[in-house]
Design a protein that fits this description.
The complex is a heterodimer. Chain A contains 13 helices and two strands. Chain A is mostly helical. Chain A has two domains: 53 residues; 235 residues, MetI-like (MetI-like fold). Chain A has a two-stranded antiparallel sheet with strand order 1-2. Chain B folds into two domains: 56 residues; 229 residues, MetI-like fold (Orthogonal Bundle), CATH 1.10.3720. The chains are: A mainly alpha, B mainly alpha. Chains A and B meet through helix 1, helix 2, helix 4, helix 5 and helix 6 of A and helix 2, helix 4, helix 5, helix 6 and helix 7 of B.
């Protein structure tokens, strides 16, 4: 009995070694850092944004109704609608490119490609996903615009929404393709085999059986792709230009939320000025938009996922 | 998938009647569409790489073409990597930006690795399964989806202003840390998840405490996976441009940073700078910068794959 007690006290000694306590405290704190980061993002964006709206030069109504974004002009106007519409416009162009290309690539990878082709194409998509956005921006400005856009649509400016949108679309192809591919692969093989056994062709099986079965994952990938297109910064800053008024011409320059954040911060913006605070107002606008989309993507993936035995 | 023979029979039969022949055409058209989509994605990547290589190579290789009038000042990788930026495109090197990126990488590794792996170990091995843990996980998923430019604003408010680090390489490194932390935590958790439960249970059965089992058995076998995740996170960090703009990295910095608190510029920022000049010669310099950036990423990704293959034992 005494032996056992000795052993136990020895054991408890090892358990309560101070270094263990410190390490455990450290790793627990690291995990909680995730919450801390989220809180500080919301807190910093909100406080500075509130400062922005308290500025007499800005009104909440003006922020949402003015049709020009000219914070550095003599008579500054802060019409965020200009920026939001440009952002959505370019994001929609990007989606028109990336949804079909990404989805069809995913269908090819999961339904038609042999294991060998898959082994080649998957890494290529991963490389495409790893290309820094500044490189895509360079590509949009120096290759897509002169070689594609200006060749087929003469008279397009150097900076235009179309080439920025196309480049953003190319950037999010891997996102759409890999999530859709995962969704298609999650559909049990029995469904595919059953359809083929009943005499359906591969095309019918892909479109009428696999596509609907994986729809929740595919829609989730679309929403996530759209969210990434909205938050993309460098491509639109480099190739999209800065046109501070409301316009819907894809050949002209536009001014997205992200590129105006970059451009406002490029000028010397001392702490406390309206321009500095405007950064954070734009930041929270962008944060809310992407946050809703990300939550939506997660929700669709969870809620409408069909459970298969 | 069906056996080949049955499939062949099916397609033979479909050719018999007109309706079925039409089906066969639709079938090939569909497959053709899929091919086109995959090809476009691959071709775009190849075009991008080809364009960058063919434009930027003049800054990295000597040109002995006869009748060349202007001598190109920077014509090899070593000069390009060590020379300061310049007003003349053919004399501009990427030295300070390269040094800045190295500084950033060092800071990011030293801060991200302990926090990232620590959080992963806690969440995977120690965390109780309750609402709080679920909330942390939800936070991590959401943070991974926050646009990088928002992290730049956070870094501007917290590190540059609040902590008083100013527009320095330290602020930049810490901002990038926040950016890749969620990615690194998720990757490290995957590495821990891959360690078979028998190892935990074996250690516990031999009388190890939970702490000993985790830190002496589980974590060591997950290290290769964790390092791989770290390298991949790091390769994302060095390609990031937007958050660093708020750290003042875009102002003309033409010196090598010597302390964590000195001003800095980084490779992607320098490339962005060069892209902004309208003259065609700058395109070549910018392309050379991109070649360097892509080369760096290639090395890091190869390193990640190497570590994964070399040290990941079959458990």
């Amino acid at each position: 009995m005494e032996n056992v007690n000795n052993l136990r006290s020895q054991l408890t000694k090892t358990i309560t070694r101070p270094i263990e306590k410190i390490v455990k405290l450290f790793i627990t704190a690291s995990a909680f850092a995730a919450i801390l980061i989220s809180i500080s993002i919301i807190f910093t964006l909100l406080t500075e944004a509130i400062n922005f709206f308290q500025d007499p030069a800005v009104t909440f109504k003006g922020y949402f109704t003015a049709t020009r974004w000219t914070p550095t002009f003599q008579n500054p106007e802060y019409g965020v609608i200009v920026l939001i519409s440009s952002t959505l416009y370019i994001a929609v162009i990007a989606c028109l490119i990336s949804f079909p290309l990404g989805l069809f690539s995913a269908i090819y990878l999961s339904e038609f490609a042999t294991r060998r082709t898959r082994k080649v194409i998957k890494p290529v998509l991963e490389v495409l996903a790893g290309v820094p956005t500044v490189v895509f921006g360079y590509f949009a400005l120096n290759w897509i615009t002169p070689n594609i856009i200006q060749r087929f649509i003469p008279g397009t400016g150097v900076f235009n929404a179309l080439s920025a949108g196309i480049a953003v679309g190319i950037m999010i192809i891997p996102t759409v393709a890999s999530i859709s591919d995962d969704a298609l692969n999650a559909v049990p093989n029995s469904l595919r085999n059953g359809s083929l056994a009943l005499g359906a062709t591969r095309r019918i099986t892909s479109l009428k059986i696999m596509f609907p079965a994986a729809l929740s994952g595919i829609i989730a990938s679309f929403i996530l792709g759209f969210s990434r297109a909205i938050g993309e910064t460098m491509i639109v800053t480099i190739a999209g230009g800065q046109y501070p008024e409301l316009n819907l011409d894809p050949r002209s320059a536009m001014y997205t939320i992200t590129s105006s954040i970059v451009n406002v911060s490029l000028g010397d913006t001392p702490h406390g000025t309206t321009a500095y605070n405007a950064l954070f107002a734009l930041g929270i606008t962008l944060f809310i938009m992407t946050f809703i989309l990300n939550i939506g993507s997660d929700y669709v993936a969870r809620k409408y996922r069909k459970e298969y035995e | 998938m069906l056996p080949e023979s049955i499939e062949k029979n099916m397609s033979n039969e479909t050719l018999i009647t007109g309706k079925k022949a039409e089906n066969a055409i639709k079938e090939s058209l569909f497959l053709f569409t899929l091919y086109i989509c995959v090809t476009i994605a691959i071709l775009t990547l190849m075009t991008l790489i080809y364009d960058v290589l063919s434009t930027g190579i003049t800054r990295l290789t000597s040109d002995y073409e006869v009748g060349l009038i202007t001598k190109i000042q920077i014509d090899n990788p070593v000069d390009f990597l060590t020379t300061l930026d310049s007003r003349y495109p053919d004399r501009a090197g990427i030295g300070p930006a390269f040094a800045g990126t190295v500084w950033l990488m060092i800071i990011v590794v030293f801060v991200t690795f302990p926090f990232g792996t620590g959080a992963a170990i806690y969440l995977q091995e120690f965390a109780p399964k309750n609402r709080l843990t679920r909330f942390i996980e939800l936070n991590l998923t959401n943070l991974a989806g926050v646009p990088s430019v928002i992290y730049g604003l956070l870094g501007l408010a917290v590190f540059v202003r609040l902590a008083g680090f100013g527009r320095s390489v330290l602020s930049g490194g810490l901002t990038l840390t926040l950016l890749i932390l969620p990615v690194v935590i998720v990757a490290s958790r995957e590495a821990l998840k891959a360690v078979p439960d028998t190892i935990r249970q074996g250690a516990l059965a031999l009388g190890a405490t939970k702490f000993q089992a985790v830190f002496r058995q589980v974590v060591p076998s997950a290290i290769p996976g964790m390092v791989t995740g770290m390298v991949l996170g790091l390769s994302r960090a060095i390609g990031e441009t937007a958050p660093l703009i708020f750290m003042g990295a875009l102002t003309y910095v033409n010196y090598f940073p010597d302390t964590p608190l000195s001003g800095f510029t980084a490779i992607p920022i320098q490339v962005y700078n060069w892209i902004g000049y309208p003259q065609a010669e700058w395109r070549e310099t910018a392309s050379a910068g991109i070649i360097l950036l892509l080369g760096l990423l290639l090395i890091m990704n190869s390193l990640a794959i190497f570590i994964r293959n070399r040290y990941e034992k079959d458990l």
